[in-house]
Design a protein that fits this description.
- Keywords: Hydrolase.
- GO terms for molecular function: hydrolase activity, acting on carbon-nitrogen (but not peptide) bonds, in linear amides.
- With 321 residues, the chain is an alpha/beta fold.
- The protein is built from 7 helices and 16 strands.
- The strands form 3 sheets. Strands 1, 2, 3, 4, 5, 6, 11 and 16 form an 8-stranded mixed sheet that branches.
- The longest helix is centred in the first third of the chain and has 17 residues.
- It is globular.
Amino acid sequence: MTNAQPVRVAAVAENFGRDLDESYRTIARLLAAAREEGVALVALPEAALGGYLSSLGGGRDVAETLKSRPNSLPPALRLDGPEIARVIAMAGDVIVVFGFCEAEGELRYNTAVALDGTGILGVHRKVHQPLGENLSYAPGESFEAFDTPIGRMGMLICYDKAFPEAARSLALDGAEIVVCISAWPASQTASSDDLSEDRWTKRFNLFDQARALENQVVWVASNQSGTFGSLRFVCNAKVVGPGGDVLATTGTASGMAVATVDVAELLGTARRSMFHLRDRRPAAYLTAEPAVAPAAPDPDRAAIQAPQAVAHVAEPEVTHA
């Protein structure tokens, strides 16, 4: 479902912590600013309700570190709980995407939700888990697009965008707009005082532009800003066009990157001659796992287990919108 009218979209770089009341105040402030700008879609960061993990790492002491730091885990919220309902009431006619720690039974997921005043439009559970995140969350299982008032949309969370198959799965499912929310920190092993020169900042930006270009979609990337625990976030919220060009960015500061996008026109122009989804040669690609498996993970890194995620490999008929 392609929206025939131009829309204003916003990607936010902002700091969110454990205090839910403070998070609601920040969301209200950002939504007020977005409405003044005529924005139809606001992408807030990963873990905007309840904050992210206070540390990341893959060493042998990660599990003990988390156990000894009770404040390191965010509050677990239900999709049908009052916390999400409060944001629905705040959203009105604006589509809001944000992240939180989702509770389902005994499991916890790093989840993104898209909603407006009518209710929940789409949900994504983070599939790819970096640097010990699997000690706190179960992994998601799939990538699925969904319809919204401004077009067909898909969501990713942070490290998901490092894997081309994730964004491609959404594009094959018809996503025209992909929102990737993040809590992407600067490097901790080779950090730079200048965030713009940090190697993880450069990777963050490269992934955003590459995924937009290779799938020829509108890409809206949010991120945390400031610091939380031992993490310093790289900001760089942005809107990227289907040609890989950055339409708006916050750079290394907090703020809101706003761009006007005519989704139908942008996709039509980008896909007019070199239409990547159409020109693929799936029969030539390796779609099965190789016989030699990757090295086994460190047995001391106990993980929360859930079924393996499966990328979208069906071959739908791809037509020009």
